[in-house]
Amino acid sequence: MTSTLKDPGLAPAGHAKMDWAARHMPILGAIRRRYQTDRPLAGQRIAISLHLEAKTAVLAELLALGGAEVAITSSNPLSTQDDVAAALAERGVTVHAWRGMSDEEFRAMHERVLDLAPTLILDDGGELTALLHDRRQDLAAGVTGGAEETTTGVTRLKALARAGRLRYPMVAVNDAEMKHLFDNRYGTGQSTWDGIMRTTNVVVAGKTVVVAGYGWCGKGVAGRAKGLGARVVVTEVDPIRANEALMDGFEVLPMRRAAEVGDIFVTVTGDKDVITPEHFARMKDGAILANAGHFDVEIDVRGLERTARAQLPGRNPAVRGFVQEDGRALWLLADGRLVNLAAGDGHPIEIMDLTFGLQALSLERLTRERPAPGVYPVHPEDDRWVAALRLEAVGVEIDQLTPEQERYLASW
Description:
It is found in: Cytoplasm. The structure is a single chain. By secondary structure, the protein is of the alpha/beta class. 46% of the residues lie in helices and 15% in strands. The protein is built from 18 helices and 15 strands. It has helices at 11-23, 26-38, 54-65, 82-90, 103-114, 127-132, 137-140, 151-162, 177-200, 216-227, 239-247, 255-261, 277-280, 301-307, 339-342, 349-369, 380-393, 403-410; strands at 45-49, 69-73, 94-95, 120-123, 145-148, 169-172, 208-212, 231-235, 251-252, 264-267, 288-291, 310-313, 319-323, 329-333, 374-376. An eight-stranded mixed β-sheet has the order 9-8-7-10-11-14-13-12, sandwiched between helices. It has a seven-stranded parallel β-sheet with strand order 3-2-1-4-5-6-15, sandwiched between helices. Strand 10 (264-267), helix 13 and strand 11 form a beta-alpha-beta unit. Helix 9 crosses helix 10 (216-227). The longest helix has 24 residues, at 177-200. The radius of gyration is 22 Å and the shape is globular.
């Protein structure tokens, strides 16, 4: 297959990014050494929809080294790094993505990766699975299984499974302990603020930050905001999580009241219409709106455009100002898409090393075990192997249970 790129000439800069990332990914490095000799994915065809930047490219190259034919597109129109895409294409992976794809181009490139007739898929948000259960049902029978990266995608998979429609097994990588405890909390927490701060260049300390949603991602965003010196307000619909946020030291308000006090708003709920014109009307002049959830539906961007009497350019293309009828300006980051990827470099390298290690191991296990259609957890052995290797990589030793302790814990 021929790659679809913006500019193949950007490859040298992409190679440098990939090499830098690989040096900081010991888990993928350990898998890579085994894959180069054992080639456990020989004969497999893998279609990937993930944010196409350097860490993802290292994973895609690893799967190709394991013997698979690999085609990749981006799971977000604004998260592709064109230099990395060009470099990955030079390393033997078919790439169909570029930064700034239109919605139509975005959908067309997902169709292109499925033209591979995949036996395995790696999905982020359920885009490939949605196509395989709708327009490309002819290919679903050939899919051995796959892995899903994010909370939103797992939610969609479970809905398909409940309806009895999921046609192949999928591993919910997002739900693994080494994923949601670290990727969602520390990865989203750090990368979201990296995207906001590099885009706006405003101070966070002393401001009021409103975090919509207190799942693992929301915990990370709120915790990092607190560490940066912000006053943090959490909005929630789940009374248990609202209590957790309260006991973690954060103020909890409904969005209609939080809208009046917030300086920076970050949505991380996975749901639509979290911030709407009702809330825009209550916000301060200069309020900043950012989304860290998978889809660009949490902030009602169309409603923001509709209620504004004028638009203003920001300090860079990732910032747009919307002047309200009374003269207040609200600033939207990254068009309401994932601010940490559309306006930043995504999660830290070491964090994605954990998640992508689980992705590779889960695909490999699917080729051996061939389970029935359904949503499956990451195998505990794979989760613990990644955890142990991470500790080894940073030079940390832990205690081991003695046989007597194991017997005690197993007894009644």
